[in-house]
Every structure is written in C-alpha cells, then in structure tokens.
Design brief:
Blueprint lengths: L9 E8 L3 H12 L2 E5 L3 E5 L5 E6 L13 E8 L3 H13 L5 E4 L3 E7 L5 E7 L7 E2 L2 E2 L8 H4 L16 E8 L4 H10 L3 E6 L3 E5 L7 E4 L15 E9 L2 H13 L5 E3 L2 E5 L5 E6 L1
Parallel strand pairs: 1-4, 5-8, 11-14, 15-18
Antiparallel strand pairs: 1-15, 2-3, 3-4, 5-11, 6-7, 7-8, 9-10, 12-13, 13-14, 16-17, 17-18
Protein name: VOC family protein
InterPro entries: Glyas_Bleomycin-R_OHBP_Dase (IPR029068), Glyas_Fos-R_dOase_dom (IPR004360), Glyoxalase_1_CS (IPR018146), VOC_core (IPR037523)
Keywords: Metal-binding
Length: 283
Amino acid sequence: MNFQQKPNTFVSHVKLKVQDLNRSIQFYQQIVGFDILEKTDTTAKLTADGKTSLLSLEQPEDSLPKQARTTGLYHFAILLPTRSNLADFVFHAVNQGIQLGSSDHLVSEALYFNDPDGNGIEVYADRDPSTWKWNGDQIAMAVDPLDYEDLVKEGHPNAWRGLPENTVMGHIHLHVAELDKTHDFYTAGLGFDVVSRFGNQALFISTGKYHHHIGLNTWNGVGAPQPSANSAGLDYFELTYKDRKSLDQAFERLKTLGVSVQEESDQAIVTDPAGNKIRLVIQ
C-alpha cells in the first residue's frame, strides 16, 4: 500500500536552505543518491526518478549557519521501496564513512544522519502495514535498537546505485514551540489525525492510517524561537491534497481558525504556529 499518494494528504516535497550549494549538491548526489533535475547559480532541484523533484536546495544571500534550539526541521525522511534497498544503503553509507544513527520503530526501520549544514535526514523502509499494531486509532511505535546484522543479510556490499526511481518523501518531523495550537492547526485545520503521542512532548499525525506523515515535537524547548530567515534549515515543505475540493476545504478550515492563507491559483502558502512554512498543492 502506498500512503504517499491519493486519496491521502501527504508530504511530497521539502525545500532546504543551505550555506554552500555546491557542497550540498555533492553530498546529496554522492551520499544520498539523488540526481539533479534543475540547477541555477543559487538553487537546485533533486530527483530520484528523473521527473519529480523530492528535494530542493537554495543558498540564500548572506546565508547563516543552522541555528540551534529553534523551531524548524528535525529531519525529513526518504522512504525507500524495499528493505533490501535499505540494506544496500547501509553498505554504501559505511563505505562513504557516514556515521549513522538508527532505530527500529516497529512500523519501520530507520537510519539517521545529517547533511553538511546539520539538516537531519532519515532514510527508512516500512514494514508491511499488515504487521503494524493498532490500539483503536493509536499505532504502536518504539525507538528500539536496529538489528543491523539481520538487515544487511538482505543487501549486497556494492549494489547501491543511487535512490531507486520509486523512492518518495515519506514524512517530515518538525521542531515546534508548543503542542496545543499546533495540534489544532494540523488536525482541525489541515485535516490530519493524531496516531501517536509521546507524552506532552511529541505528536505523530497522518492520513489514511499511515504511521505518520508528520512528526511534531517540543524537544528544542517549549517556546523555542524561530530561526533567522537566511539561516540554513527548512524553507518549506509541500502537502499534496487529492483534489481542488479537498484543498478548498482545508482553506476554509484554516480560515475558521484564524490562519492567514496566501492563495495562488491551485496552491497556497500557510505558516504553522511555530513559523514552519507549508505549501499546499494538488496532486
């Protein structure tokens, strides 16, 4: 089952601000496995299938290093098609000298690392949804040690050839300043369901019974400030809705909450209570 397509609302694209565009392009090509779709002196669009951009990069004028203890990106997550793809990536990352964090989330197996600007990246593979455990509307997730020994049995040391063409943007995880208004914005406004809570520190939300399309946490502190506009980090991410009617309904719900919606033909730009910018689009 593909949770990153209609009729779900899902994260389809992420745009990052970086300090050195050429350095970042080299990293995302050689380490992560993207190809360049388009490039200018200050921007680049990266792709896995040669047609669709999953990640964009921009080097702002007078760019600053990524600021700590602010709202913004915790990580974006690249979803590989198969577990064997993930195993192949392990061999590749080790060969490239990349220090990996990892976790078994029960619903998925995940690897973690940072780009040269400190932007968090997750590369993961989902377990079969039939194995996910639900307690009513809440899904069981954990942060267990990843069994590397078992995982790499499915891979080959020299098999990695870049991101497979059916790779997608699986989810995004954000630092926010608080959870109450943030909860209302993403659920009552954007139409997501809460599928997991980690105490009063984190929410995981999705559509279509996915384990999460968006993670939201206050781990940088309640009341964390927004980063400077030209600092490295998240510029915006895209949420794709199934049709114009669904998009219009989201507009109306957001306006009812008092959220400013900047409409532009078949898309709109909104900002969550923590200052994270979101582009709402139609598939």
